[in-house]
Amino acid sequence: MASDLDTQSFLASPQLKPREGDLFNIDAALTEEERAVRDSVRAFVDEKVLPIIGQCYVDGRFPKELIAEMGANGYLGANLPEEYGCAGLSNVMYGLINQELERGDSGIRSFASVQGSLVMYPIYAFGSEEQKKHYLPKMAKGEIIGCFGLTEPDYGSNPAGMITRAKEQKDGSWILNGAKMWITNGSTAQVAIVWAKTEDNDDSGKSIRGFIVPTSTKGFKANGQKGKLSLRASDTSELVFDNVHLPADAILPKSGGLKSPLMCLTQARYGISWGALGAAIACYEEALAYSKERVMFGRPIGGFQIQQVRLADMLTEIVKGQLVSLHLGRMKDAGTFTPQQVSFAKRNNVNIATDIAREARRLLGGNGIVAEYASMRHMANLESVYTYEGTHDIHSLILGQAVTGMNAFGG
Amino acid sequence: MASDLDTQSFLASPQLKPREGDLFNIDAALTEEERAVRDSVRAFVDEKVLPIIGQCYVDGRFPKELIAEMGANGYLGANLPEEYGCAGLSNVMYGLINQELERGDSGIRSFASVQGSLVMYPIYAFGSEEQKKHYLPKMAKGEIIGCFGLTEPDYGSNPAGMITRAKEQKDGSWILNGAKMWITNGSTAQVAIVWAKTEDNDDSGKSIRGFIVPTSTKGFKANGQKGKLSLRASDTSELVFDNVHLPADAILPKSGGLKSPLMCLTQARYGISWGALGAAIACYEEALAYSKERVMFGRPIGGFQIQQVRLADMLTEIVKGQLVSLHLGRMKDAGTFTPQQVSFAKRNNVNIATDIAREARRLLGGNGIVAEYASMRHMANLESVYTYEGTHDIHSLILGQAVTGMNAFGG
Amino acid sequence: MASDLDTQSFLASPQLKPREGDLFNIDAALTEEERAVRDSVRAFVDEKVLPIIGQCYVDGRFPKELIAEMGANGYLGANLPEEYGCAGLSNVMYGLINQELERGDSGIRSFASVQGSLVMYPIYAFGSEEQKKHYLPKMAKGEIIGCFGLTEPDYGSNPAGMITRAKEQKDGSWILNGAKMWITNGSTAQVAIVWAKTEDNDDSGKSIRGFIVPTSTKGFKANGQKGKLSLRASDTSELVFDNVHLPADAILPKSGGLKSPLMCLTQARYGISWGALGAAIACYEEALAYSKERVMFGRPIGGFQIQQVRLADMLTEIVKGQLVSLHLGRMKDAGTFTPQQVSFAKRNNVNIATDIAREARRLLGGNGIVAEYASMRHMANLESVYTYEGTHDIHSLILGQAVTGMNAFGG
Amino acid sequence: MASDLDTQSFLASPQLKPREGDLFNIDAALTEEERAVRDSVRAFVDEKVLPIIGQCYVDGRFPKELIAEMGANGYLGANLPEEYGCAGLSNVMYGLINQELERGDSGIRSFASVQGSLVMYPIYAFGSEEQKKHYLPKMAKGEIIGCFGLTEPDYGSNPAGMITRAKEQKDGSWILNGAKMWITNGSTAQVAIVWAKTEDNDDSGKSIRGFIVPTSTKGFKANGQKGKLSLRASDTSELVFDNVHLPADAILPKSGGLKSPLMCLTQARYGISWGALGAAIACYEEALAYSKERVMFGRPIGGFQIQQVRLADMLTEIVKGQLVSLHLGRMKDAGTFTPQQVSFAKRNNVNIATDIAREARRLLGGNGIVAEYASMRHMANLESVYTYEGTHDIHSLILGQAVTGMNAFGG
């Protein structure tokens, strides 16, 4: 009965033996090509990101100097088609890129997530052929940077309540008024994808449409957020639209209703689920290496039971998160994945990453509070990641609704 | 570059849409044949186990009346070859059988684990051709029941220290003396696989050999454990060997050193990692169903945020455990899995199952303490599972050693 | 400025040095008389309860043979006045009695809680002078046992919804119909305090009144709960009232509205907050003693870091719970305590006790699942305690309402 | 029997009703004078610290401008005697000062802890009368600032291994060589208390003595720590001693062995146990206020069950921590407290504060990552507090040793 099965394991690399550092042999679930993509991004991060990112973080500066190479390497919109100048990679490969970039810093991955999933994706999914041809190749190269304006100060977890309005003029052009908050790349971008209601009385969000707004347009203003204690190597800004005039063709023609930006968030959250693992891996690897070197009471602290439990718990959660993201990626590549599954993965993986970063920092002792080590930087970054793109609590209620059939968002 | 990948997802059933109750679409990772095996065991448990198991548990009785059908259905030693009368299933299928049996009760799965992984497996792996031909077909049918005698009262986590001795006589026969504890099936079995040191001065356990001991042999005594508050539907006994004479061919010829029984434990732990998920699933499904029916303050309690968070957390851990066991099973089928990976899976899956059972019981309120509902029975059972086959702490230190290279068992 | 303070520490026994086993010197916060009360109950439990309670639990039997001595020792209604035959102890002393009784078993403490706080207290607080004089002295001696009928099958956390009705007849007598569930002492009691609505249309519970119902009255039936996996050494029953006729003077004249039974619950919960600590202390002490004796890998396991962390965490939560109950008791004795403070203490102390019992059981390894050891019995019992007298979740929402001013019971 | 007790509650203010925000009426355990001290420090922090501390933190600057007022208010060495120019307050009052200062920022409290417990205390306890008279009054006023040099780069948790040496010269003077790390106030101080071994071959630390070292002495160098992601409003420095010549009277004459600096740490840890509560209170109060104002889905988020559970859990841990510190303070005032009790309180209170800060930050959503709100600043600070003055793990093992009698520091 089982004869066929004996020859087929559904592992991508069934005969691969576990390499050191990959106790549960996650690599066996990846193809050789997937591992190659991951390793090349890993090398980029080791060579270009890690040497500078600690100081960028301390200085509160996003390292724009990396953009060109990220573009040249195909990291921006990597899962979009080659015909628009993108790398045309699978979603699993796209996920692995996110993982490795966030192993560098959540700010680097956030930059790529916004550019790829929140700017290039909506142009690809909701844009006209002209818009796609004009923007996507340049965005893939990093020549045009974009940002995504959905969240508003009082409607973080409830975008249907947004206040920003785009009013259609008699000539088909638009006037945009309102404000957006917590906008990654906001001060760096040449172009913003702005979501606005197009009707006055719209509580449900059904009149929401997306617009491509050059940030040089009169009335558009971006203000960098001051005093951040997280994602300090990322550009987070507030956007203000004061009677911003937009031509008729600024609209994304196929966008319609709140569903459109939510589709973008699903794309971005998918990438975040991978990215958070990268941050967790960075912390775990730092802690593990430290535990082998740091001597206390005459022994490396990695030989003490307390630290072994700590490391075993970290590793366990990373491995499980990797299996979650990989299964999700396989389903995304198969075309069957659901937004609730993405909520599941984002919620879990970011949550465990916050715990891992904290425990890694603690294992590092006093050294764990300086930017020379990565764990506390990741610990601080991940608090933003925990909150953005659907807070942990919101995803709990999305899952709760999915399994019980009952809506508990309003209490 | 990614063209080939687009056509291949490494999911067993890539196009399968998630069915209700399978939010993360674990089924897509299974073949149709695997799902069929699982569903048939599930049906057996629904029809034969669930109607009686609560009362068996209250009465402290293992339901022997189920053995014949379990044998006939191929659940015993299911991953051993057909040439010895076994089902010859893959390790993933074997795992799914364990999952479904423990959805019934940990005692049912323990019975099958011992019979298959701790009795049939060592005969298969270390036995002579005669031993295999004599025992395995009858054991597969449940006509001969076995037990596994390794653990001793003072050496639960340190079997190398065992006291039981088999002394070779001049004629090649053996005399066995000692005692074993916490022996599942001990009073039910016709045959015991007993592990004993064959040399007097052996601290490391290198002289340990396995013996096939008919329980009717003079000097062999089994005493059922009294006062159990866990695994009450399982036979747990103490074995005493008082000058038990064994013929020369009682020995398992290929056994040698502590490594042999540890290989058996690796097999059993593999099955436990799946089984614990079954207990967790039983609890989650019971709690979910209850949350939809139980009305408080005018609403089903499943509509309250507190219960939605509880359910989302349960589901999350079950899904991750399933991915862990499935990945492990695929590696076992590919022949690359390691004992440390089994420790990883046993430790995690049992641990999360204990939490899920407790939270399910709590969601059930007052009803959660009676045997009419399953969650508290599982909660109590899982404490045994947490402790046996390597305690949680021991597996922490196995993982700690694997990643740091340092041994911390002795502190 | 601080001269006066130097001479006053507000400790009851400021100069007391910490005794072994009392690391944080909780005894210094107790008077000599309080410690004497505690020690005498402790001796009673050691001598009379512990030798039999494991077997009672296995057998599912409440040890009625202990009642007379508990009465003679003044443990029943101990904080009620001497003029009604009670011990007239302070609330702190009453709490210490509860702590020590539950160190024996939650079922023993539940018996005393029901008798004292849920039967004698309402007679004392809402009864006529005749009722007090008739019942309280006999109840204090344990000659009359009572139970408390408030909870109904579908209104566990929402007693205002109760269905049980007492209908006043023209002659002032009453006819009682309905059913109650999860009634401690229900089959043991000679007298039940039953809460019923006296008006047909009453959603809020304002017509609720209390009645003294002899269990021998025609139409009164008590059915012992079958299949309990918790509180097995306690009598838990269902009560059914089928046209139970009660004389006019069966009513508790000063009772009125849901507030009356809730006042009783506040009394009982106060005692539970102490009792749960007793269960936790039993588990901690058992685990600590075991850790010093149990040798593994050549050392007592108490010398391993993993077990030291486990013990330190247990101790920490016990100490904090003791300070909570003691502060609450001092406030109760001062007459200032609030029901929300009782919710605080019940919720915390039971919750930490469930964790401590589980960790103790785990430290005990395989021995931790048999009734010869106490930890798993306590672990199972505490699940009932977690649920009854206001579930953990309900108390969370009581506290949430207290601090935010917003009601979230209905979601 | 209980008549006397009825009149005595051992609460400092037994009749006090709970004020809003003090659900468990901790105030009732304080005297009026204690509450007055606390309230005055609270006002100082509200008026002088909170308006500037967020910016100080972002800028990485300790606000030296506050020192004079802290001195004038008696916050420095507040529990030392009035005869040396100190406030002569009780240890409970001293604790309350620490609590309120850390409600501002851990860096402010660290400054005061070092000055009072690690500089003034050793001069008071181990110094000559001349040293006390010279230093203490000026230090109490903040005219001379001190730091405490014990920790070395490779001996964070094991000070007995220190390398720094003080070599006595023939004329009785000393030459100091070595380095110290993680020194609070290191670059701010005019005087350092430096601990050094005075014998070459000393593994146990028995030759350790303390020295008063003016930071202007030739060969003394302090380097501010760069890249801190925690305690950014505090001065943390490395000290280097390169042939620092000290006069004979630089030594603290009564210091002797490792015990002396450990006594200082006990003093400081006592204050930290209170201080961490202040940070936790700041976070809880910020989160609670935010939950009442922040509207989502049409309701203040404080009305949602998820947030109510979060707030109830925070409050619970704060209250328990307050009772711990208060009981410890009463024992310190009574002269009976032990270093293990201080470990207990430091370990618990800092640990719960880190959780509370994180949960508060999460409740604040996106706003929780900016320095305009306090929670994330406290969350980051508390990681240092978790690590310094005995890491959490070290205190676990101190408690483990205290209860089991076995030393597990070395594994």
Quick summary:
The structure is a homotetramer of 411-residue chains. Chain A is α+β, with helices and mostly antiparallel strands and 411 residues long.
Q: What does this protein look like?
A:
The structure is a homotetramer of 411-residue chains. The longest helix of chain A is centred in the last third of the chain and has 35 residues, at 259-293. The first copy, chain A, is globular, with a radius of gyration of 22 Å. In chain A, the strands form three sheets. Chain A has a four-stranded antiparallel β-sheet with strand order 2-3-7-6, with helices on one face. A three-stranded mixed β-sheet of chain A has the order 1-4-5, covered by helices on one side. A two-stranded antiparallel ribbon of chain A has the order 8-9. Chain A has 411 residues and is α+β, with helices and mostly antiparallel strands. Chain A contains ten helices and nine strands. Chain A has three domains: 19-141, Butyryl-Coa Dehydrogenase, subunit A, domain 1 (Orthogonal Bundle), CATH 1.10.540.10; 146-257, Beta Barrel (Butyryl-CoA Dehydrogenase, subunit A, domain 2), CATH 2.40.110; 260-404, Butyryl-CoA Dehydrogenase, subunit A, domain 3. In chain A, strand 2 (165-168) and strand 3 form a beta hairpin. Chains in contact: A-B, A-C, A-D, B-C, B-D, C-D.
